[in-house]
Amino acid sequence: MVGWKEKVVGVLKQNLHGLSVSEIARKLDTTRITVALVLAELKGEGKVLVRMVGVAKLHYLKKP
């Protein structure tokens, strides 16, 4: 079974322009809290970058 981390990474791989927490949650049919926790973990691992666009934070996968 695929975990939330793998699901979030999969969504980010398909959307190279970046996504907000709400957009990711909508695509995965889960809560923003779940997505925010997974993104915080991925950011801590150095796998995700965050860019501010106005008031929105867009999340991207870091290029290897």
Report what the structure shows.
With 64 residues, the chain is an alpha+beta fold. It has a single domain (4-61), classed as Winged helix-like DNA-binding domain superfamily/Winged helix DNA-binding domain (Arc Repressor Mutant, subunit A). Helix content is 50%, strand content 19%. It is built from 3 helices and 2 strands. The protein has helices at 4-14, 21-28, 32-44; strands at 48-53, 56-61. Strands 1-2 form a two-stranded antiparallel sheet. A hairpin with a 2-residue loop joins strand 1 (48-53) and strand 2 (56-61). It starts with a helix and ends with a strand. 14% of the residues are buried. The model has no long low-confidence stretch (mean pLDDT 94).
Helices and strands in order:
Elements: H1 4-14, H2 21-28, H3 32-44, E1 48-53, E2 56-61
Antiparallel strand pairs: 1-2
